[in-house]
Amino acid sequence: MSENSNPLAKNAAAPLYEQLKFAIKEMISSRALGPGDAIPTETELCKQYDVSRITVRRAITELEAEGVLEKRHGKGTFVTLPKMETSLLNLGGFSESFALRRYRVEKTILEMSEEAADEDLGERLGIAPLAAVLHISRLITTDGTPMTIESSYFSLDLFPGLMNEIHDDTSLYSLLQTRYGREVKHAKRVINCRVATPKECGIFRCASGDIMFEVEKTVYGEDRSVPLQYSKLLTPSARMNLVIEI
Q1: Total domain count for the chain?
Q2: In a shared domain, residues 168 and 130
Q3: How far is the C-alpha of 127 from the C-alpha of 41, rounded, in Å?
Q4: In the list 86, 91, 209, 216, which could disulfide-bond 97, CB 3.0-4.6 Å?
């Protein structure tokens, strides 16, 4: 950045910090800065807008208070990521909830493999230990923001050949219904909270120590004694509101 490249109007009625706030918001609305992007440093902003460090700090502090920016210790100041809402009473997955709100939803397979169920997974899926299961892990993004890691398990006795049917953007519940005649009718969710691992911080672009929602979900058809899927959905708590409407 060149010095004094965007000087503010020093004789204007609006204080300089207010003008700088507007300039930063303009960078965000024009998509010069996107959700999760780092804004220029204090030094860079001082040079670019020909203002004092006090002016820069006041503008940033007020934008933090408004929820536009967030500071990450040791990393800098970033554009706040959007906070989503999803109903815990909705039978669909998080990605379906986001799509209904007209967000651009994309899914990317991180891992997919056939495995032998251990005792715990066998109990959750109602199958014998060592029975074959399909494990698929996908990253769900909304408008380009990493939102959820969805790790799902399916009995391959119940869904033979399932691996060959799944691609990045496959709707799992639609596939279960159209290919296997199994429609999701009931769901059980258990919500846990834990600290993000270093690997997860890298995927979600979040700070060390951030709290994650870990939602365990088991879905059933008409027969609640036959689980169709067991999954864990991991989402930064700062990006999600879990809503119950009664």
Answers
A1: 2
A2: yes
A3: 55
A4: 86
